[in-house]
Design goal:
The complex is a heterodimer of chains A (236) and B (88).
Chain A: H1 3-19, H2 29-80, H3 84-142, H4 145-192, H5 206-235
Helix pairs in contact in A: 1-4, 2-3, 2-4, 2-5, 3-4, 3-5
Chain B: E1 2-5, E2 9-12, H1 18-34, H2 37-52, E3 55-56, E4 67-69, H3 76-85
Parallel strand pairs in B: 1-4
Antiparallel strand pairs in B: 1-2, 2-3
Helix pairs in contact in B: 1-2
Classes of the chains: A mainly alpha (236), B alpha+beta (88).
């Protein structure tokens, strides 16, 4: 089996699971429509949850940005007091937080796209549920039980497939927000208790760590030199 | 045949394309197993281009699909994860 045929099998399994218990669609038309409305509500709540989590991460990122500014100010103050040691420390923390924050922003942009897609899918699903409602009325009026089974079966399967699609997209977005939430919190805690002073979180590769440290050290030196030059200009 | 592009919607596609899809399908899965990002995206784009030449299924129409294709934004890692979460 290939990738697409595997995906198709996964969808079919999910769809048939959600259609379980719909043995006589004609009698249960209204009931199944009710169930679809409930599912649609769940989807809407799920989408809203993703949006809320994203907002929370954005707030955390904004708080981090404030702290980064704070360190920048601290470093300037230290330079003006000729405390290069303190300035170096502040700059190194600033840079560590900056690196983490950049990663967070990239993820946020990615999540933004997922969110837009989810909203779009939710609108589509809602139209499909509407279409189902119309079809259900037509079928109730027009067909015998046996014919109804055939007609509604296809409609119910199609709708269920739509729900499966949005369900998978939602799960993906939720997984992403969860991992970002964890990352944002971890940075936050490190920043709060000042443990983010080792600018390079170990990559598990000692050579890589050494190289990262060298790069960070170099840019801290550069920035310190810049601050000193600035304060020198200000003083003169 | 009806093809669903995940996260995008359904298309009515020329049934004569089945063999093309089947062939690419094998390449896609192989790329996922190898972790070959470039090949994965190349084959996926190939399939999506073919599918999008079809006619988009109107929003008020409820039909089931004959084939499900990952959306263009599904990464190799996402695809692999879905496969792992739903073993054969």
């Amino acid at each position: 089996m290939g990738l697409m045929s595997r995906m198709s099998t996964i969808f079919k399994a999910k769809v048939s699971k959600s259609l379980d218990g719909m043995e006589d669609p004609r009698e249960t038309l209204d009931y199944s429509y009710q169930r679809q409305l409930e599912q649609l509500q769940q989807v809407r709540r799920g989408v809203a949850d993703v949006v809320t989590s994203k907002k929370r991460i954005e707030l955390q990122a904004a708080k981090l940005e404030e702290q980064i500014h704070q360190w920048d100010d601290d470093a300037k103050a230290a330079v003006s007091q000729n405390r290069d040691d303190l300035a170096r420390e502040a700059l190194s923390r600033k840079q560590a937080a900056n690196d983490q924050l950049e990663g967070l922003h990239t993820q946020l942009a990615d999540l933004e796209k997922e969110e837009a897609k989810l909203v779009d899918l939710e609108h589509k699903l809602s139209s499909k549920v509407d279409a189902f409602r119309t079809q259900k009325e037509v079928i109730k009026a027009k067909y015998s039980a046996a014919e109804a089974t055939v007609h509604i079966g296809e409609a119910a399967t199609g709708l269920s497939e739509e729900m499966t699609d949005i369900g998978l997209a939602m799960q993906r977005a939720q997984d992403k927000t969860e991992s970002m939430q964890a990352r944002a919190q971890a940075i936050d805690e490190l920043v709060d208790n000042g443990a983010l002073n080792d600018p390079t979180v170990s990559s598990g590769d000692s050579l890589r760590d050494e190289l990262n440290k060298m790069k960070t050290g170099k840019s801290v030196d550069d920035e310190l030199a810049r601050l000193k030059a600035e304060s020198g200009q200000n003083a003169s | 045949m009806i093809v669903r592009v995940m996260g995008e919607g359904q298309y009515r596609v020329d049934g004569g394309l089945v063999s093309r899809f089947e062939e690419t399908d094998q390449h896609l899965l192989a790329a996922v197993h190898r972790g070959d990002d470039a090949a994965y995206h190349m084959h996926l784009r190939e399939v999506l281009d073919l599918v999008r030449q079809g006619v988009s299924v109107p929003i008020g129409e409820l039909v089931s699909s004959d084939l499900i294709v990952p959306g263009s934004d599904m990464t190799l890692r996402d695809a692999r994860r879905i496969l792992e979460e739903h073993p054969e």
